[in-house]
Amino acid sequence: MDVIELFKKFIHLKSETPDDGGILDFIENYLGEYSAVRIDVEDVKNLFIYKKFSEGEHLCFAGHVDVVPAGDGWECEPYDAIEKDGYIYGRGTQDMKSGVAAFTQVLKDTDTFNGTLSLLLTSDEEGDAKYGTVKVLEYLKDKNLLPDSIIVAEPTCEEKFGDAVKVGRRGSINGYIELVAKQGHAAYPEKAINPIHQISKVLPHIAGVNLDSGDDFFSPSKFVITDIRAGMQVTNVTPGKLNMMFNVRNSTKTDAKDIENFIHKHFKDFNYSLKLNQSAYPFMTQVDSKIVKTLDKAILHVTQIKAKHSTAGGTSDARFIAPYGIDVVEFGVKNDRIHAPNERTSIQEVIGLFKIFKKVILNY
User: Fold this and answer.
1) Which residue out of 16, 66, 317, 343 is catalytically annotated?
2) Active site residue 125
3) Looking at the DSSP assignment, which residues form a beta bridge with residue 116?
């Protein structure tokens, strides 16, 4: 089986979160010469496969086999892996069964390596991510099997295949503000305290504001308001409270305490409460690390493109890996159709990804 045949097989296996569609069982059998550990938790399936070829460092490829629901608007069946005009269509082609197929086939074809090679796979990345990569890493730490470096094969490229490697990610902080005022009759505004009027004075100073200046790798941490609601959907009652939700994709220059201070500065004259939930912390792998330099050279060799180093985008399971002191990077195919109808990946990108991962193993 070659990488494209394997890729199509993975598309055919419907694996909407947390269902793995039988993919992990298949990979465990397909890589039968590797040692396999199943770390299944509740309804989440996890697989760690490894092989110590010789003394040396431990290089791991990581990712997820689960996909988001196909949804509507498809021009073909989303799990038929239809090939058309050099592309393969299907849910998960970009995010991220192309990456899973590429590194699985690379390990299948590898006969020698200066160290240990492994795969870390979960069916819980697109969901709550409570019982997936998190649980595997806990197991690996307990068994003294943590890798030195990990490549997460998420789709990272923007305009052309090979143009972007993620060397870090911004954090994500969700905020919830409740503004308590005084309800009353709209005809007697002097007898009420209107929280909508209160917040209208604050919004120009907080909405879309950059909380820091960013740096060469991170864009500024921006205060993004995602929801404001108050009132009873009537015209004659001044509301007694208002709720606002916001999100900050934070760089390493802004943390939760900074956001607390920012809110207090603008809301200190009001009766408010604030709740913050940090779902991801910012991290960055040094660009002169072994894995970044090796991956950069492999991409340049295969594509003749010098990849830029990026921290843009949302979160991924790399956020769970970095705190263990592991050098983690992300690289995969273009991400222009992830989670969208008619998701597709070109055959040449999948073959190119396979070649790049093969080159990484050769030169690591």
Assistant:
1) 66
2) yes
3) 52, 58
pLDDT in tens, 116-171: 999 999 999 999 999 999 999 999 999 999 999 999 999 999 999 999 999 999 99
CA distance 104 to 358: 11
Percent of the chain having pLDDT more than 90?
97
Q: Which one from 95, 125, 296, 317 is the annotated catalytic residue?
A: 125
The domains of the chain are located at 3-169+282-363, 172-280
CB-neighbour burial class of residue 4 (10 A; exposed 0-12, middle 13-18, buried 19+):
middle
Q: Which residues pair with 242 in a beta bridge?
A: 179, 230
CATH architecture of structural domain 172-280: 2-Layer Sandwich (3.30)
Report the C-alpha gap between 26 and 13 in whole angstroms: 10
pLDDT at 315: 85
Q: Is 288 considered catalytic here?
A: no
Instruction: Give helix 3-12 / helix 347-363 axis angle, nearest 10°.
Output: 120
Q: CATH: 3.30.70.1560, 3.40.630.10, 2.115.10.20, 1.10.530.10. Which one for 3-169+282-363?
A: 3.40.630.10
